[in-house]
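Q: Joint fold for the lines below.
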Amino acid sequence: MSSGQVTIRNIKSLDDMRSCVALQKDVWNFSDAELVPLRMFVVAEKIGGQVIGGFHDEQLVAFAFAIPGYRNGRSYLHSHMLAVRDSFRNTGLGQRMKWFQREEALNRGIDLIEWTFDPLEIKNSYLNIEKLGAIARRYNVNQYGITASPLQGGLPTDRLVAEWWLNSERVLTLLEAGSRPRFTAAKSIQVPAKIYEWKAAPASRALAQEVQNRNRAEFEQAFRNGLAVMGYDRDSAGGGRFLLGSWHDSQEF
Ligand SMILES: CC(C)(COP(=O)(O)OP(=O)(O)OC[C@H]1O[C@@H](n2cnc3c(N)ncnc32)[C@H](O)[C@@H]1OP(=O)(O)O)[C@@H](O)C(=O)NCCC(=O)NCCS
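A: Joint structure:
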C-alpha cells in the first residue's frame, strides 16, 4: 500500500470515532478496560484535542489522538496515540499523520506537542527523534503499570517524554533539509535488536528486563546531568542507539 493513496483529515463523526476504537483494538490488542473508549474521543475533539484520521477508500487506516494539556502557563497538546494499520506501515503514513498534527496545532497557536514512547521500541524512537525532530529529557518509570499489550511483553511501562517544539530551529531544519541539525553527542544509550525477541518469550524476558533496568538508570543519570536525547542511530543489525547532548548549550530548541 502507498501512503499517497491515503487522505488525512480531522475526524468529527461518531462513526469515524468508532472506527478509531476498533483500529486501536487491532493495533494494541488491549483488554476492554485498557481501551480508550469512544466517549474520550468525543470529549477530546470537543475540548481542543485532536482526532485525526487517515482514510483509504473511506476506510480508516490510521488515527492520531491528542488531548489538551497545560503546564507552566503554556497550552500544549499531549498526543496519546498514533496508530497505522499494519498493511499501511513503513510507507511514510505515520510521519504524514504527525506533520498534519503539527499543522493543525500551529493553526490554533499551539507550538508544543508532547507524547510518551517506549524507549525499547527502536522504530518508534527513530521516528520520533530523527524523522520528526522531537527531543526527550524526562523519563517516567512504569507509567501505566504492567499492561496486557503484547507490544510491552509484560515489562514495566517505562516511557520517555517526547517534546516536539513545532517551530524550533531543529524541526524547521528537518522540514527544510530533511535531516536534523548536527550536534556533539556526550553520551549514547544502546538498545539491542534482540530486544523484541527477548520480550516476546517468557524464558528470555529477564534479558529484556536487564536492558530496561540498565537504560533506565542511564537515562535518569544523563537527564540529571542536563543532557537530552537529540539523536538516534540505527545499526546494520537492527539495533538502536540514543544520542544525548547538552541542551543547555543548544540553540536547537
Ligand atoms: C509507530 C507507527 C505509527 C509508525 O507508522 P508508519 O506509518 O509505519 O511510520 P512511517 O512509515 O512514517 O515511518 C517509519 C520509519 O521507521 C523506519 N523503520 C521501520 N522499521 C524499523 C525498525 N524495525 N527499526 C528502525 N526503524 C524502522 C522506516 O524505515 C521509516 O523511516 P524512513 O522514513 O526513514 O524509511 C506504526 O508502526 C504503528 O502503528 N505501530 C503500532 C502502534 C504504536 O507503536 N504507536 C506509537 C506509539 S503511541
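Q: Anything notable?
A: The domain at 3-182 is CATH 3.40.630.30 (Aminopeptidase). The longest helix spans residues 205-224.
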